[in-house]
Amino acid sequence: MNFDLRLPIGIMFSLYGAMLVIYGLISDNAIYERSLGININLVWGTVMLVFGVFMLLLAWRGRKKT
After folding, report:
1. How far apart are CA 40 and CA 27, in angstroms?
2. Predicted TM-score (pTM) of this structure
3. What is the distance of C-alpha 49 from the center of its chain?
4. Over the range 1-12, which residues count as b (16 or more CB within 10 Å of their CB) and which as e?
5. Collapsing DSSP states into helix, strand and coil, what is residue 37?
6. pLDDT band at 1, cuts 50/70/90?
7. Greatest CA separation for the chain
8. What residues contact 35, with CB distance under 8 A and at least 6 apart?
9. How far apart are CA 32 and CA 35, in angstroms?
10. Could you read off the pLDDT of 5-63 as tens digits, one per residue?
């Protein structure tokens, strides 16, 4: 069986992270007043995007060795 779970997890986190980063960049800063001015969408989108890319790199590295 040649199924690597890191690939769909990496794709999912990368897509959702990219969507949150884009939304955090284009949204109005007034909606972040309740969160002490911290752009939560941008912060967590970046975290999710980095994690997704890391999982994709691990999946790519795993396929390369096989």
Report:
1. 11
2. 0.87
3. 2
4. eeebebbebbee
5. coil
6. low
7. 50
8. none
9. 5
10. 999 999 999 999 999 999 999 999 899 898 898 999 999 999 999 999 999 999 999 88
